[in-house]
Every structure is written in structure tokens, then in C-alpha cells.
Design a protein that fits this description.
about 210 residues, alpha/beta, Rossmann fold, seven-stranded mixed sheet, two-stranded antiparallel ribbon, 6 helices, about 30% helix, about 30% strand, binds S-adenosyl-L-homocysteine
Length: about 210
Amino acid sequence: MTSQRTRDRMVARLRGKGIRDEAVLAAMAAIPRHIFIEEALASRAYEDTALPIGFEQTISQPFVVARMVEALRGEARLGHVLEIGTGCGYQAALLARLATEVYSVERIAGLLEKARGNLRSLRLSNLRLVHADGTRGLPEAAPFDGIIVAAAAPGVPGALLQQLAPGGRMIVPVGSGDQALCLIERTPSGFTEKWLDAVRFVPLRGGKQ
Ligand code: SAH
């Protein structure tokens, strides 16, 4: 139920649904997703579905995680990355395998503590977890080559655009009712945006708790 074979089957399904980036697929085959989910639900960890992680939040479905990380990478190695919305820490672990350095911020202290516990056994030395309101980005660690937002906002927070390095990419779900993934790239003259899949995310909220 939680074995390598189950993970390999999940990866085969992601491939079937159009995920092409081999580095992302390899990382998803390696990271044990079930350790991020409470025991009662762990048997469903490799289904292509979102699951509750407490505090009224959810871990995104594997396809959406794969799609976002694939878009963020654009087939290049990720350098200095910011994740907004650590949640249970699964996507942060994935990013840490693919990037030089990852900062992941979460506004709910209790969830961040849970993520710390979940991540401990993976010993990812290039991952830093920070209790902060991600709508303000993380100025002390900016600029970032990549920013990935795991909660939906009606519009892209200006602070995040400002903290993107030239040539950097950001993937963010945008919309208050209907939501879609938006891929933003910082060019020498400004920003470009490209709209990808329709999605359903929990809202990005300001403040800490
Ligand atoms: N990447 C996560 C998905 C978490 S769901 C995972 O793999 O589990 C989205 C998370 O974003 C929630 O934990 C929520 O508390 C957090 N969030 C929402 N608004 C935020 C903000 N302004 N700053 C930081 N985290 C935020």
C-alpha cells in the first residue's frame, strides 16, 4: 500500500496524464508521500486526489503538484526557490530534491510543526521552513529563481513579483471563484504570463496564526 511499487504506479499514471519531466517523475518516485498523511488516510496517499492535512487545509493531488513543479522547472535545474504554503511538507520535500536551496513558508504555526515532524526522517539539508505570511514573500532571502504558491489568490501579490530574479519563474493559482494556474516569467523588460490548467486550491490568506 505504501511501497515503492505503489509509488511507481502513481508515476506511471502521471506519465499517462501528460507529465513529461523525468526529473520530476523520478523525485515523485523517490519521496514517500504516505509519511505526510495521517495514518487513517495513508492508504490513499498515492491516489490522484487531494487529502485533508488538518487545520482545514489539504495536500494537493499528485497531478497538480507534478504539473506545477514541471512548469516551474521548465526543464532547467531549480536554483534558489520559495514555496508559499508548506502545508504537510510534501511539495517542499520534492522541491528540495530538485533545487539548490528551498525556503518554504507557512502561516499556520501548528501545520509548520507537523511538516517539520514529517520531514525529519528525509534529512533535507537544503530546505528551510519559515513561519511567515507568504503574501509578503520572504524579503530576507530574495531574490528567487523560482516561486511556487500552493494557495489561490484573486491576483498575484506584488511582493512576490518583486522578489523574482530576472529570468525567474513563478507558478501560482489565480482566481477567487474559478481558478487557473498562471506561469509568470520575469524578462529583462517586465513579466510574461501564460495560463495553464483549471485548478481548485485553498485560499491564500494574509497574517499568521
Ligand atoms: N504544498 C502543500 C499544500 C498545502 S495547502 C503540501 O504539499 O501539503 C496550502 C497551504 O498554504 C496551507 O497550509 C495554508 O495554511 C497555506 N497558506 C495560505 N495562505 C498563506 C500565506 N499567506 N502564507 C503562507 N502560507 C499560506
